[in-house]
Structure formats: structure tokens, C-alpha cells
UniProtKB/TrEMBL annotation, chain A:
<feature type="domain" description="Dynamin N-terminal">
    <location>
        <begin position="40"/>
        <end position="146"/>
    </location>
</feature>
<dbReference type="InterPro" id="IPR027417">
    <property type="entry name" value="P-loop_NTPase"/>
</dbReference>
<protein>
    <submittedName>
        <fullName>GTPase</fullName>
    </submittedName>
</protein>
<dbReference type="Pfam" id="PF00350">
    <property type="entry name" value="Dynamin_N"/>
</dbReference>
<dbReference type="InterPro" id="IPR045063">
    <property type="entry name" value="Dynamin_N"/>
</dbReference>
TrEMBL record, chain B:
<keyword id="KW-0472">Membrane</keyword>
<dbReference type="InterPro" id="IPR027417">
    <property type="entry name" value="P-loop_NTPase"/>
</dbReference>
<feature type="transmembrane region" description="Helical">
    <location>
        <begin position="456"/>
        <end position="483"/>
    </location>
</feature>
<protein>
    <submittedName>
        <fullName>Dynamin</fullName>
    </submittedName>
</protein>
<keyword id="KW-1133">Transmembrane helix</keyword>
<dbReference type="InterPro" id="IPR045063">
    <property type="entry name" value="Dynamin_N"/>
</dbReference>
<dbReference type="Pfam" id="PF00350">
    <property type="entry name" value="Dynamin_N"/>
</dbReference>
<keyword id="KW-0812">Transmembrane</keyword>
<feature type="domain" description="Dynamin N-terminal">
    <location>
        <begin position="42"/>
        <end position="194"/>
    </location>
</feature>
């Protein structure tokens, strides 16, 4: 039996075996969630650019954004037949809310104090939201170090804590790694229980690094690489992708008139262009439509667009939109996102459901024992846990061994070619050959008397992954 | 204004020399030197990557502070006036004392940025750069502080500690976002230590919404009850203005306002303090000179009173010798102060230790050790900095107490002396008592903070004490196949073991901190005591000498023949008039 039906059956049994209404409600919820899209939270400090990134990911200017602090209530954006907003109240009730759309953004009118609202749910007909629900969170403004020290407790080797979300995208601003708050960016709350297997880091507002010069994205890539090399950070999230959310959002929603505004600037004499793009003030002050374009693209986006148009690299708004998207890094984020979350959504969802059982059931009851058995036997879980250990730095082995183990276990994505480190167009023969070779290597390691005990155990699990790859091909 | 004061000091000095009072002339020399020296420090502080170094560069129109999109300043850089550009590193030697090392000018970035420390070389504690710039020449010195580790870290605390000697702080935050809660909290602590702070919003060229941000920031500061003016600048435009020699761009950059503010509000305010102190010294010296002149004048103009006067001064002289209860105040005060400061430090460290142990009990040191070290360094430096602030405050209070006592004593001198006979007009002017206000103003020149902190980054060593690494034992991965609960037990045991190890390390660290800070603070107490004792002893000697000389002058004047006495009286009246003009 594959993982999801097995977990679903277990939840049904657990539901039948209890009469406690809170437990029933919790398990019922968990059961429903198995059928719903993966829940992905966007978390990070205040003004990290969470709403902007959400807009870029959905490809629509849904979430309102502003220069000052903006998002104050947790808001879910999910696929639905029509636009609709529902408030989920703290007392458990739900009610529809009126809203209007201002320039694409869904502006919601609250009919009660914000502290009575647990979260808002915005339904949007969107293909992009069909596979995962995105959750926009208010920023974490200031936290004490004590919290940060406690947060790292979620590194504990099998932190299968129940959480409302299945995966997390953490947004970091450019920060110093010695910053005592550095890791706090990774502190969610109950909502965002991130672990190294369900977390992707984003270096946000990448276009602002180094003074919005045209090499900003290159500087951002350097910073992201430095982050990814930081041991502590690697244990929290294995990948950090630099993303200019503003560029991504603009690329997704660029309008013809905006392109014309930028194209008109690009035709001015060079000296005038330089003068105009010197400061945000000059550009915004020269015409109302330019001010609007600046608000949408940011100074870096405007500079980049004008340069691309001048150099005839782009010729119309579609070209420019594509170029902006390419520069934003959003595509790379989507790739990572797909590999880390979407490909693994079954096991992530199953994991969330089992965590609910752990919380609500007596550890000696039959369903709890069954949950334990699923965790220990389902190979997806073994892979996930092993990845977790690996990334937490708890496995012995050489750098090369660990890196190979990470990808064979599906760390870069579940597809066979990703696991084997082959190009996307690798033939079945190539895959078979590579998988066989890996299988041999890891089998030797698993049986080698000098291998550390932990490494041997891990190597056995890796051979199972390799066998799985071979089985899938034949 | 300063020149008038210098002329007055010179005038008083001439009189002092004429009266053969070398001791008083020496005091005036020192006051005049102090007035001219006045090095006014402005610290540039703020979060990582807000443009602090760029601001210093733009302000001084230089490129001496290294700027990079990712690498950060790691060492405080002091910029002072110097005709020849030089760079001097303060490198700690084996015994902890700082040694100056001069390096080539273009090598600066090798030493002050984070990536820098050359292999084997000791990292400098601070760097001094001398540059020929008008703003520096006016007596300003700028300190570019490191943004490493954020405001609420060990480094942030050390920056706060260094602020005690600064006349003002420029708090730098960029226009990409409004002030955050930690930034406001830091500003609040800045204001506790530094007479003035300004919030400078940088990078206005990059952010179209900067006016909103300035407005929001002003709102946040007002809401927090902080009196901090907000300015907006663009360093990019300022540097471009320099390259193009354009006044217009310079004005647009917002820097002229900042320069004006530094010159007018900061420099002048700091100068006013120095002038007040010099004036107080002048008043003291004039009072000393006047005592003798007035007494002699009284004796010369009315010989009938001479007998009383001779008696009066003999008595006063006798009493002066028995005075000195201010010494008791000083001695007792120092003892109390030492005990209190010591207790305070111990209490702070004990609290820290307790909090640290609680934290360790809640987490696994293997995962949190690195953060825990940062936490411990932050708490320890906060404890040390706050403890030093207490020491500075208490030293100030003690100086006050000693000064008050000194005043009371010397004022009380005259209280029940035989009063001159009524009807002797001139004699009523004789009550040249000790210049009280002058005495109190001496405290303006006594900056306990400067004595206490003894220079920049005395605390620099604290961060470096804690470098132990707790090895992370390999976790069991038997959990893959074994029951989770069994694994949990084993893991729990390992965690306990690591916690124990971490607690031992923490205690050792706290002991080290206690030792270092305790030693520094005892040193500071000794400096304070020596300074107060020397200062008041010198004053007491000056007063005693004035009294003795007045006594003998009265005797001599009374003994003069009539015609000579009248001439002497005229002479003295002239001298008196001159003294009155001075103070």
C-alpha cells in the first residue's frame, strides 16, 4: 500500500476509536488535509518582502504591499472557483468578508478587531495555487535571543511536530552571519514548523544589495553562497536562493503602458538617461507614470529595463517581462520549490498527519503504534529522516559521501535524474547504469567493516533508494 | 568668544605671576591648553549594511573607509585631523596593552574589514586614520563603528561602551525600511550615554519612498519619547557632487545640513562645556588673588581696622591648617563606591549565569552552542558596560560630594571669625569668601566617564574570551529501525552530558569576565581617587597659601607709614579693579 492511503486508513481507525470531540476534530482536520494542496508558509522578519514574493509566485498582484509594515494577519491564498474571502475566527467560527480589488490587490475590510481573527482565507481561481496553498504571515519584528535559542530546538533529529503548514519558505534580508538575530529569521511560530527537509531559504530584496547597481544580482548570489556555506544555516535550510521579488512580481504582471513608459525613457539621449536614473527621486518626479513604474519595479528594475531596451535585448513588453522574470531569480526558486516540496508533497503531508496523531493519542494505543510502524517502515520516511540527520550534521562520512547521499536520498528532488546527478534528458539506460553503480558503491560501504556504524546503517538506506530507482525503471 | 576668554586667562596669568603665584599661573596654563585641545568625538553607529562607512567617506569626501556590498567593517576606525595622512593600528600585545603600529595608507582595507586578518597577525583593536579635512581640523573626530553582529550583540554593547566618551552619535539606518524595534531600543540606550544623537536616513537616492520612511521614523521616535532629530542623506549624491564639483548635487545630497549640524550643534555645544570649565578656573584664580588684594587694601585704607584684620587672618590661617574633612568624604566614598560597583558586577554576572543555565537546560548545546556563545558574549559585555556606567555615575556623584564638602568647609572658615568693627566702610567688602559657583563648575571639567573608560574599547577583550567549541558527538541513527523511545533515552543521556560540559564552560567564562572587568574597574577607581585627591589637595594648598599671604600682607600694610600706605591703597584699588574686570 502506498503511503497516503495507508495514513488515511490509519486516521480513519483512530477517528473511530475515540469519542473525545477535540481529538476527533483534530484528526478529522488532519484527514481532510491529506486531500488538500500542500500548505506552504512564507515566513521571515518584518519588511522582508513576503507579500511581494507571494505575488511573484502566484503571478498576480494579490497581496497588498506597501513601504511601511503591511501584512498584519495571517492570510491563506488558495485556489477556488471564484474570488472569495473568509475570516476564520479564534472562537472557531468562520464568516465571509467583503473585499474589493485595488490595482489587482485584494483589499479586505475587517468587521471586527484583528485579534479576534485567527486567519483570513482568500480563494482565487489560479492554476498556480492548485498544487499548493500559500500562506502570507506578518513579519517577526523583534525577538529575544532566548527565543532564538529555543527555536533551534526544532533541529532535533525527528522533530515531527504537528504544524499547520507542511513546508516553509524563509525570507532573509541581507544580514551578517554573526548577527544574534540571524537565525531568528528562521523562527516561525506554531504556524511555520520548519525543518531542514521542508524548508527553502530566500535571500529577499536581492536587487537592493550593493546600491541597486546593475551587478546587484551577482552580489546577491555571492551573499547567498556565503549563507549556504554557513554550517548553522545549512542545518536549517539546505538551499538559499537570491530573489528580487519586486522584479518577479513585475515580470508576471507587466503592462503594455509600463513598457511604453520605459521604452520612451530608453530613447532619450544617454546623458539624460543617466541623469534621470541617478536617483529614485529624479525618476519618480519627472512624470506620474514614471513614478508608478518605479513603485512597481524598484530603481534596480527600472535601470535594468531601460538598459535592456537600449541595448535592444528586448523589443516588446512580453520580452521585457520574460527578462525581468529571468533576472528576478524566481524561476530558480520555483525549481527548488518543485524539487523540495511538490515532489515530496505526499510524504510531507503524511508527516504532518502523523504528527497530529502523536500529539493527540496515547503513545501506547494501537493507532500510535501503527503510526510508529509507518514511520519506521515507509522508505519515504526513512529517506526524509536520514536527510534530516544528514543536514543536521549528525552523520559521519566524507564531504563527497555526504553530498552523494544527500542527492541519492532525493535532497535535490525526487526525480531519478536528480537523485543520480544526471542531466534532465538522461536516457533510461544511463539512469540504470548510474543507479547500478551507486548501488554497488553504497552496498560496499554498508558492508565494509571499517565504516562507522551510523554510516553503515545510512548506507543500507541509500541502497534501498537505489533499488527503488532501478525498480521504477524496469 | 574663545579668543576673549584666552585673553582673560592671559590677563589673570600676568597678575598671578606679578603676585608671585606660580601655582595659580600653572592652573591657568592648563585651562588654556584644555580649551584649545578639545577633541570632539562623534560616533557613527547602526545596524549592519546601513551605509555607515559610506557616510563617513561622504562626510569627509574621501574613500578611506572600505566599502563593499557584502564584506563589513570589523574594527572601529577613528578619523582625526592630521596634516599628513597616516594609518595607525592599535594592536594588542601579549600582556594586553595596546601597541601602535603604522601601516601604509592604501593598506587600510586589509586591516579593518572582516575578511582581513592576515594569517598569524594579531587583529587590531582599533585603527586611527589621520586626514587633512576642514571638518576634522575644526576639532571633530569621527568613529566608524563595526556593524558586525547587529546592535543587540557583544559588539553592539562595546559600541555603546565607547559612546561614553563621545559628544554625539549619528545613528545610521537606510531608507529601505522604517526603524525596527531593536533599532529604537538601541537608540534609547545611546541617549543614556551620549548627550546628543541624530538619526540619519541613508540611501535616499535608491528609495523613492524615503520621505515616507523619514516621516515614519520621526513618528516612531516621537512615540518612544526620544528626542532624536531625523535627517535624510544620500552619500552617493555627495560623492558624485564632489566628482563633478557641483554645489547643487551637494545640496540635494542632504549633507550640508548634516555638516552644519555637526559644526553648530555638536562642536559648539562641546566647546561651550570646555569654556565653562575654563571660566570656572579663571574665577577660582581671581578669587584667590583678590583675597590678598582686598585684605591688604582694607588694612591700607583704614589702619584702625588693621588689628582686627591681623587677628582675623591669623585665626583663619590656623583653621585652614586643620581642615581636610573632604578627605574623609573622599576616602569613605571610594570605599563605598568600590563595594557597590563590585557587588553590582557580581550580581549582574550571577543573574547572567542563572539565565544561561536555564537556557542550557532548555536546549541541546550541540545545536545551540554557537548561538549560546554569542548570547554569553552579549550578556557579559552588557554586564560590563552597564557596570562601568554605574562606576562612572557613582564617580560623578562622589566628585560632587567631595566638592560640596570642600565648599562648605572653606566657606565655613569665615563664619564665626571676629567681625570687623562696624562703620569701617571698606571692610565690609572684605568678605571674599570661597567662590562657590566656581567650585561647582569644576565638575563640568571632571568627566568621570572619560576617566572611567580610559580610552576606546577597553572591553574589547571580552568577546575574545569565549572560544571553546563543544564537539558535536555523532547522533544515533538507529532510530531508522529501532523504536524511537529507546533512541530518545540514549539521546537524552547525551544531551545531559553536553549540558554539563556547557555549564562548566559558562562558569569558567563568567569567572574570566569577572576577573577582567573587576581588574579594569579597580584600575578606574584608583584613577578616579588619585585625580580627585590631587585636584582638591592642590586647591586646598592654593587657598592656604592665599590666606597666609593675605595675613602677612595685612601685617605689612598696617606697619607702613601713613603716606606710603595711601599710595599703596591706590595701587591696590587699581589691582582690585583689574581683578573685578576679569571675574
Amino acid at each position: 500500500m502506498s503511503l497516503l492511503p495507508e495514513v488515511r486508513a490509519l486516521l480513519d481507525r483512530a477517528l473511530a476509536g475515540t469519542t473525545d470531540p477535540t481529538v476527533r476534530a483534530a484528526i478529522g482536520d488532519a484527514r481532510r488535509r491529506l486531500g488538500e494542496p500542500l500548505r506552504v508558509a512564507l515566513a521571515g522578519k518584518v519588511k522582508a518582502g513576503k507579500s511581494t514574493l507571494l505575488n511573484a509566485l502566484v503571478g498576480e498582484g494579490l497581496a497588498p504591499t506597501d513601504a511601511g509594515e503591511c501584512t498584519r494577519i495571517v492570510t491563506w491564498y488558495a485556489d477556488g472557483p471564484t474570488y472569495a474571502v473568509t475570516a476564520h475566527l479564534r472562537d472557531g467560527g468562520t464568516r465571509p468578508l467583503p473585499f474589493h480589488r485595488a490595482g489587482g490587490a485584494v483589499r479586505i475590510t475587517l468587521d471586527r478587531p484583528a485579534d479576534q481573527v485567527d486567519h483570513l482565507e482568500v480563494r482565487v481561481p489560479s492554476a498556480r495555487l492548485r498544487r499548493h496553498t500559500l500562506i502570507d504571515t506578518p513579519g517577526i519584528a523583534s525577538l529575544s535571543t532566548e527565543v532564538s535559542l529555543r527555536t533551534t530546538a526544532f533541529l532535533d533529529a525527528d522533530a515531527d511536530r504537528p504544524a499547520q503548514t507542511d513546508a516553509v519558505i524563509y525570507l532573509l534580508r541581507h544580514m551578517h552571519a554573526h548577527d544574534i538575530r540571524f537565525l531568528e529569521s528562521f523562527h516561525g511560530d506554531d504556524l511555520a514548523g520548519g525543518t531542514p527537509v521542508n524548508t527553502v531559504g530566500v535571500l529577499s530584496r536581492a536587487d537592493e544589495i550593493g546600491g541597486a547597481r546593475l551587478d546587484a544580482m551577482a552580489a546577491a548570489a555571492r551573499v547567498a553562497a556565503r549563507y549556504a556555506a554557513d554550517d548553522r544555516l545549512r542545518r536549517l535550510c539546505p538551499v538559499v536562493v537570491p530573489v528580487a521579488g519586486l522584479l518577479g512580481a513585475a515580470g508576471a504582471t507587466l503592462r503594455e503602458d509600463e513598457f511604453r513608459t520605459l521604452a520612451a525613457v530608453a530613447t532619450l539621449p544617454m546623458a539624460d538617461v543617466v541623469e534621470l536614473l541617478l536617483t529614485a527621486d529624479r525618476f519618480a518626479g519627472s512624470a506620474p507614470e514614471r513614478r508608478a513604474a518605479l513603485g512597481r519595479l524598484g530603481l534596480f528594475g527600472v535601470r535594468l529595463s531601460v538598459r535592456l531596451i537600449r541595448e535592444q535585448k528586448v523589443h516588446d513588453s512580453a520580452d521585457l517581462a520574460a527578462a525581468l522574470t529571468a533576472h528576478s531569480g524566481i524561476d530558480r526558486l520555483r525549481e527548488v520549490f518543485a524539487a523540495q516540496f511538490v515532489g515530496r508533497s505526499e510524504v510531507l503531508k503524511a508527516r504532518s498527519a502523523l504528527a497530529v496523531l502523536d500529539e493527540f493519542l496515547d503513545p501506547d494505543s494501537a493507532p500510535a503504534a501503527e503510526a510508529e510502524r509507518i514511520r519506521a517502515s515507509a522508505h519515504e520516511f526513512v529517506e526524509l529522516r536520514l536527510l534530516h540527520l544528514l543536514r543536521s550534521g549528525r552523520l559521519p562520512g566524507t564531504q563527497a559521501q555526504l553530498a552523494e547521499m544527500d542527492s541519492l536520498l532525493g535532497g535535490a528532488g525526487g526525480a531519478a535524474y536528480l537523485r543520480l546527478g544526471l542531466p534532465a534528458d538522461a536516457s533510461p539506460e544511463q539512469i540504470t547504469a548510474a543507479a547500478r553503480e551507486a548501488l554497488m558503491r553504497w552496498q560496499t560501504l554498508a558492508e565494509h567493516p571499517f565504516s562507522a556504524k551510523e554510516l553503515r546503517t545510512a548506507a543500507r538506506a541509500v541502497t534501498r533508494s537505489c533499488e527503488g530507482l532501478l525498480a521504477a525503471i524496469s | 568668544m574663545a579668543t576673549d576668554l584666552l585673553a582673560e586667562l592671559a590677563g589673570a596669568r600676568r597678575l598671578a605671576v606679578a603676585h608671585d603665584r606660580g601655582d595659580l599661573a600653572g592652573r591657568l596654563d592648563r585651562a588654556a591648553a584644555e580649551l584649545g585641545r578639545g577633541d570632539v568625538t562623534v560616533a557613527v553607529v547602526g545596524e549592519f549594511k546601513q551605509g555607515k562607512s559610506t557616510l563617513v567617506n561622504a562626510l569627509l569626501r574621501t574613500d578611506v573607509c572600505p566599502v563593499d556590498p557584502d564584506v563589513v567593517t570589523a574594527v572601529p576606525t577613528v578619523l582625526r585631523y592630521g596634516r599628513e595622512p597616516t594609518v595607525t593600528l592599535q594592536v594588542p600585545s601579549d600582556d594586553g596593552a595596546l601597541e601602535p603600529v603604522t601601516v601604509p595608507f592604501d593598506q587600510l582595507s586589509r586591516y579593518v574589514t572582516e575578511a582581513a586578518p592576515a594569517a598569524g597577525a594579531r587583529a587590531p583593536r582599533s585603527v586611527e586614520v589621520r586626514l587633512d579635512r576642514r571638518l576634522l581640523g575644526a576639532g571633530l573626530s569621527l568613529v566608524d563603528t563595526p556593524g558586525v553582529g547587529g546592535l543587540d550583540s557583544a559588539q553592539g554593547n562595546l559600541t555603546l561602551g565607547a559612546l561614553a566618551g563621545a559628544a554625539a552619535a549619528l545613528f545610521v539606518t537606510d531608507a529601505s525600511q522604517e526603524l525596527t524595534a531593536p533599532e529604537v531600543a538601541f537608540l534609547r540606550r545611546v541617549l543614556e550615554r551620549c548627550p546628543a544623537a541624530y538619526c540619519v536616513v541613508t540611501k535616499t537616492d535608491l528609495h523613492g519612498e524615503w520621505r515616507r520612511i523619514v516621516e515614519l521614523n520621526a513618528g516612531h521616535l516621537a512615540a518612544a519619547g526620544l528626542d532624536v532629530p531625523v535627517l535624510a542623506v544620500s552619500s552617493f549624491l555627495r560623492l558624485r557632487a564632489q566628482a563633478r564639483d557641483s554645489t547643487e548635487l551637494n545640496t540635494e545630497s542632504g549633507y550640508p545640513r548634516l555638516v552644519e549640524l555637526l559644526r553648530r550643534d555638536v562642536l559648539d555645544a562641546a566647546r561651550a562645556g570646555a569654556r565653562t570649565a575654563a571660566r570656572a578656573e579663571l574665577a577660582f584664580v581671581v578669587a584667590q588673588l583678590r583675597e590678598r588684594v582686598a585684605a591688604e587694601q582694607a588694612a591700607a585704607s583704614s589702619p584702625a581696622a588693621a588689628v582686627t584684620l591681623v587677628q582675623r587672618y591669623a585665626e583663619k590661617q590656623r583653621r585652614t591648617r586643620t581642615l581636610g574633612s573632604w578627605q574623609t568624604v573622599l576616602g569613605d566614598g571610594i570605599q563605598d563606591l568600590t563595594a557597590d560597583v563590585d557587588h553590582d558586577l557580581r550580581e549582574r554576572l550571577r543573574t547572567m549565569l542563572r539565565a544561561g543555565e536555564e537556557l542550557l537546560n532548555e536546549s541541546d548545546p550541540r545545536d545551540t552552542w554557537q548561538d549560546f556563545q554569542a548570547w554569553a558574549a552579549r550578556e557579559a559585555s552588557a554586564a560590563a558596560v552597564d557596570n562601568l556606567m554605574l562606576l562612572a555615575r557613582r564617580s560623578d556623584e562622589l566628585a560632587q560630594a567631595v566638592a560640596t564638602r570642600f565648599d562648605l568647609e572653606y566657606e565655613g572658615l569665615e563664619l564665626d571669625l571676629p567681625s570687623p568693627e562696624p562703620g569701617l566702610g571698606k571692610v565690609s567688602e572684605l568678605d571674599v569668601d570661597f567662590h562657590r559657583s566656581g567650585m561647582q563648575q569644576f565638575l563640568g571639567a571632571f568627566t568621570a566617564a572619560r576617566i572611567t573608560y580610559g580610552g576606546f574599547y577597553m572591553l574589547g577583550a571580552i568577546g575574545a574570551l569565549f572560544n571553546v567549541f563543544i564537539a558535536a558527538p555523532i547522533g544515533l541513527i538507529a532510530g531508522l529501525t529501532l523504536g524511537r523511545r529507546l533512541v530518545k533515552q540514549e539521546r537524552e543521556r547525551q544531551v545531559q552530558q553536553r549540558r554539563q560540559q556547557a555549564r562548566t564552560e559558562l562558569r569558567r567564562y563568567v569567572d574570566d569576565v569577572s576577573f577582567h572587568v573587576g581588574r579594569d574597574s579597580r584600575e578606574a577607581v584608583r584613577r578616579t581617587q588619585r585625580l580627585l585627591r590631587d585636584e582638591f589637595t592642590a586647591r586646598a594648598a592654593a587657598v592656604e597659601r592665599s590666606t597666609a599671604e593675605a595675613a602677612s600682607a595685612v601685617r605689612e600694610a598696617a606697619a607702613l607709614p601713613d603716606d606710603q600706605r595711601a599710595a599703596r591703597a591706590r595701587q591696590l584699588a587699581a589691582q582690585r579693579a583689574e581683578l573685578d574686570r576679569l571675574a
